[in-house]
Amino acid sequence: MNPCSSRRNYYAPICLVGALLVMILSASAQAQSSSLENYPGKSLVDQNFDIALPGGNLTLCFQDFALCAASTCTPIPGGTVTNNAGQTFPSASCLCPILPGPALADLNAGNMNGTSCAAPRTGGVWSLFWPNLKIPQQTRSGKWRTLPSLPQNCPGTSNGGQIVNCFSWSCRRIGKRNGVPVAQCTCPIQLTPGDTFAIQSGLCDQSACDDFPVAAPIEVPNFCSSQTAQ
Prior knowledge:
With about 230 residues, the protein is mainly beta. The protein has one helix at about 10-25; strands at about 50-55, 55-60, 65, 75-80, 90-100, 105, 125-130, 135-140, 145-150, 150-155, 160-165, 170-175, 180-190, 195-200, 215.
Protein backbone atom coordinates (compact mmCIF):
# COMPACT_ATOMS: atom_id res chain seq x y z
CA MET A 1 0.00 0.00 0.00
CA ASN A 2 1.21 3.51 -0.80
CA PRO A 3 0.44 5.63 2.28
CA CYS A 4 0.85 8.80 0.26
CA SER A 5 -2.14 7.87 -1.88
CA SER A 6 -4.25 7.31 1.23
CA ARG A 7 -6.94 9.75 2.23
CA ARG A 8 -5.87 9.58 5.86
CA ASN A 9 -5.11 13.27 6.28
CA TYR A 10 -2.45 12.85 8.96
CA TYR A 11 -0.10 11.38 6.33
CA ALA A 12 -0.92 13.79 3.50
CA PRO A 13 1.18 16.80 4.64
CA ILE A 14 4.30 14.79 5.43
CA CYS A 15 4.01 12.86 2.17
CA LEU A 16 3.80 16.11 0.26
CA VAL A 17 6.88 17.48 1.98
CA GLY A 18 8.62 14.14 1.48
CA ALA A 19 7.99 14.34 -2.22
CA LEU A 20 9.55 17.80 -2.25
CA LEU A 21 12.53 16.45 -0.33
CA VAL A 22 13.13 13.75 -2.94
CA MET A 23 12.79 16.16 -5.87
CA ILE A 24 15.02 18.85 -4.41
CA LEU A 25 17.73 16.69 -2.86
CA SER A 26 17.89 14.37 -5.86
CA ALA A 27 18.78 17.39 -7.97
CA SER A 28 21.33 18.75 -5.49
CA ALA A 29 22.73 15.85 -3.50
CA GLN A 30 26.25 17.24 -3.71
CA ALA A 31 25.23 20.80 -2.77
CA GLN A 32 25.69 22.47 0.57
CA SER A 33 22.85 23.50 2.86
CA SER A 34 20.48 26.10 1.46
CA SER A 35 21.68 29.59 2.26
CA LEU A 36 18.82 31.63 3.67
CA GLU A 37 20.65 34.74 4.83
CA ASN A 38 20.12 36.61 1.56
CA TYR A 39 16.64 35.31 0.84
CA PRO A 40 14.78 38.41 -0.50
CA GLY A 41 11.63 37.76 1.55
CA LYS A 42 13.32 37.09 4.86
CA SER A 43 12.11 40.36 6.37
CA LEU A 44 8.49 39.70 5.40
CA VAL A 45 7.75 37.88 8.63
CA ASP A 46 4.10 38.95 8.75
CA GLN A 47 3.24 37.62 5.31
CA ASN A 48 2.29 34.16 4.05
CA PHE A 49 2.63 32.87 0.52
CA ASP A 50 0.48 29.92 -0.51
CA ILE A 51 1.96 27.36 -2.87
CA ALA A 52 -0.35 25.03 -4.79
CA LEU A 53 1.24 21.64 -5.47
CA PRO A 54 -0.06 18.32 -6.77
CA GLY A 55 -1.53 16.53 -3.78
CA GLY A 56 -2.04 19.55 -1.56
CA ASN A 57 -1.21 23.12 -0.64
CA LEU A 58 1.68 24.44 1.41
CA THR A 59 2.43 27.90 2.76
CA LEU A 60 5.81 29.65 2.71
CA CYS A 61 6.52 31.16 6.13
CA PHE A 62 9.31 33.63 6.90
CA GLN A 63 9.53 33.33 10.68
CA ASP A 64 12.11 31.35 12.64
CA PHE A 65 11.20 27.67 12.67
CA ALA A 66 12.27 24.40 14.22
CA LEU A 67 13.75 21.93 11.75
CA CYS A 68 13.22 18.44 13.16
CA ALA A 69 14.19 16.50 10.04
CA ALA A 70 17.43 15.16 11.59
CA SER A 71 16.02 14.57 15.09
CA THR A 72 15.29 11.43 17.03
CA CYS A 73 12.79 11.62 19.86
CA THR A 74 11.87 10.26 23.29
CA PRO A 75 8.37 8.87 23.91
CA ILE A 76 6.43 10.65 26.67
CA PRO A 77 4.99 8.02 29.04
CA GLY A 78 1.21 8.35 28.90
CA GLY A 79 1.46 11.50 26.79
CA THR A 80 -0.81 12.27 23.85
CA VAL A 81 -1.31 15.02 21.28
CA THR A 82 -4.41 15.82 19.22
CA ASN A 83 -4.29 17.35 15.77
CA ASN A 84 -6.69 19.78 14.14
CA ALA A 85 -8.71 16.89 12.74
CA GLY A 86 -9.43 15.61 16.25
CA GLN A 87 -7.13 12.59 15.94
CA THR A 88 -5.16 11.70 19.08
CA PHE A 89 -1.77 10.01 19.06
CA PRO A 90 0.89 8.94 21.57
CA SER A 91 3.43 11.73 21.89
CA ALA A 92 7.19 12.11 21.83
CA SER A 93 9.52 14.90 22.86
CA CYS A 94 11.99 16.03 20.18
CA LEU A 95 14.86 18.51 20.41
CA CYS A 96 15.16 20.43 17.16
CA PRO A 97 17.41 23.28 15.99
CA ILE A 98 15.84 26.66 15.33
CA LEU A 99 16.67 28.20 11.94
CA PRO A 100 15.68 31.45 10.21
CA GLY A 101 12.93 31.21 7.58
CA PRO A 102 11.73 30.70 4.95
CA ALA A 103 10.15 27.31 5.52
CA LEU A 104 7.20 25.31 4.27
CA ALA A 105 4.11 24.77 6.44
CA ASP A 106 0.67 23.24 6.16
CA LEU A 107 -1.48 25.69 8.12
CA ASN A 108 -4.24 23.09 8.46
CA ALA A 109 -2.01 20.26 9.67
CA GLY A 110 -0.61 19.42 13.09
CA ASN A 111 -1.91 21.94 15.58
CA MET A 112 -1.43 25.08 13.49
CA ASN A 113 -4.18 27.67 13.51
CA GLY A 114 -5.27 27.31 9.87
CA THR A 115 -4.77 30.98 9.06
CA SER A 116 -1.19 32.23 9.49
CA CYS A 117 2.42 31.46 10.31
CA ALA A 118 2.30 33.55 13.50
CA ALA A 119 4.22 31.99 16.38
CA PRO A 120 2.14 29.56 18.48
CA ARG A 121 2.89 31.40 21.73
CA THR A 122 5.26 34.00 23.09
CA GLY A 123 8.69 32.67 22.30
CA GLY A 124 7.33 29.61 20.49
CA VAL A 125 8.07 28.37 17.00
CA TRP A 126 6.47 25.93 14.59
CA SER A 127 8.19 22.77 13.41
CA LEU A 128 8.31 23.29 9.66
CA PHE A 129 10.46 22.08 6.77
CA TRP A 130 13.12 23.40 4.42
CA PRO A 131 15.47 21.07 2.51
CA ASN A 132 18.98 21.04 3.95
CA LEU A 133 21.86 18.62 3.44
CA LYS A 134 23.54 19.85 6.62
CA ILE A 135 21.48 20.34 9.79
CA PRO A 136 22.50 21.21 13.37
CA GLN A 137 21.87 18.01 15.31
CA GLN A 138 22.66 16.26 18.56
CA THR A 139 25.36 13.61 18.18
CA ARG A 140 25.54 10.43 20.23
CA SER A 141 28.07 12.16 22.50
CA GLY A 142 25.37 14.70 23.40
CA LYS A 143 27.04 17.64 21.65
CA TRP A 144 25.30 19.68 18.95
CA ARG A 145 27.08 20.13 15.64
CA THR A 146 26.11 21.08 12.09
CA LEU A 147 26.64 17.85 10.18
CA PRO A 148 25.54 16.13 6.97
CA SER A 149 21.95 14.92 7.13
CA LEU A 150 21.64 12.76 4.05
CA PRO A 151 18.31 10.94 3.73
CA GLN A 152 18.33 7.17 4.21
CA ASN A 153 15.67 4.47 4.07
CA CYS A 154 14.61 2.34 7.02
CA PRO A 155 12.71 -0.98 6.89
CA GLY A 156 9.09 -0.50 7.87
CA THR A 157 9.63 -3.02 10.67
CA SER A 158 12.23 -0.83 12.41
CA ASN A 159 11.18 0.28 15.88
CA GLY A 160 7.96 -1.68 15.44
CA GLY A 161 7.05 0.66 12.59
CA GLN A 162 6.85 3.64 14.94
CA ILE A 163 7.87 6.99 13.47
CA VAL A 164 7.48 10.58 14.61
CA ASN A 165 5.84 13.33 12.56
CA CYS A 166 6.66 16.87 13.72
CA PHE A 167 5.52 18.75 10.62
CA SER A 168 3.36 21.77 11.54
CA TRP A 169 3.37 21.09 15.31
CA SER A 170 4.15 23.69 17.96
CA CYS A 171 7.44 23.91 19.86
CA ARG A 172 8.92 26.05 22.62
CA ARG A 173 12.33 27.65 22.70
CA ILE A 174 14.59 26.25 25.40
CA GLY A 175 17.81 28.19 24.88
CA LYS A 176 21.01 27.05 23.20
CA ARG A 177 23.04 23.85 23.10
CA ASN A 178 26.69 24.33 22.09
CA GLY A 179 25.66 27.68 20.61
CA VAL A 180 22.75 26.22 18.61
CA PRO A 181 19.27 27.66 19.39
CA VAL A 182 16.98 24.69 20.04
CA ALA A 183 13.30 24.01 20.62
CA GLN A 184 11.46 21.26 22.43
CA CYS A 185 8.69 19.93 20.17
CA THR A 186 5.89 17.60 21.25
CA CYS A 187 4.99 15.48 18.23
CA PRO A 188 2.78 12.47 17.45
CA ILE A 189 4.10 8.93 17.23
CA GLN A 190 2.47 7.13 14.30
CA LEU A 191 2.72 3.70 12.74
CA THR A 192 4.19 3.76 9.26
CA PRO A 193 1.78 2.04 6.87
CA GLY A 194 4.39 1.09 4.27
CA ASP A 195 7.37 -1.20 3.90
CA THR A 196 9.86 1.67 4.08
CA PHE A 197 10.23 5.05 5.72
CA ALA A 198 12.84 7.75 5.22
CA ILE A 199 14.85 9.69 7.79
CA GLN A 200 17.58 12.35 7.78
CA SER A 201 18.93 11.49 11.22
CA GLY A 202 21.65 9.02 12.10
CA LEU A 203 24.53 10.33 9.94
CA CYS A 204 23.95 7.35 7.65
CA ASP A 205 23.88 4.96 10.62
CA GLN A 206 20.91 2.61 10.34
CA SER A 207 20.63 2.34 14.13
CA ALA A 208 18.75 5.66 14.06
CA CYS A 209 15.82 3.78 12.49
CA ASP A 210 15.07 2.35 15.94
CA ASP A 211 15.40 5.64 17.87
CA PHE A 212 11.92 7.10 17.25
CA PRO A 213 13.18 9.20 14.34
CA VAL A 214 11.29 12.02 12.70
CA ALA A 215 10.40 10.35 9.43
CA ALA A 216 8.24 10.29 6.32
CA PRO A 217 6.48 7.16 4.99
CA ILE A 218 8.26 7.35 1.63
CA GLU A 219 11.29 5.81 -0.07
CA VAL A 220 14.20 8.03 -1.12
CA PRO A 221 17.25 7.47 -3.34
CA ASN A 222 20.18 5.90 -1.53
CA PHE A 223 22.05 9.10 -0.64
CA CYS A 224 24.11 7.27 2.01
CA SER A 225 25.56 4.64 -0.32
CA SER A 226 28.88 6.46 -0.66
CA GLN A 227 29.02 7.76 2.90
CA THR A 228 30.55 6.30 6.03
CA ALA A 229 28.48 6.52 9.19
CA GLN A 230 29.94 9.00 11.71
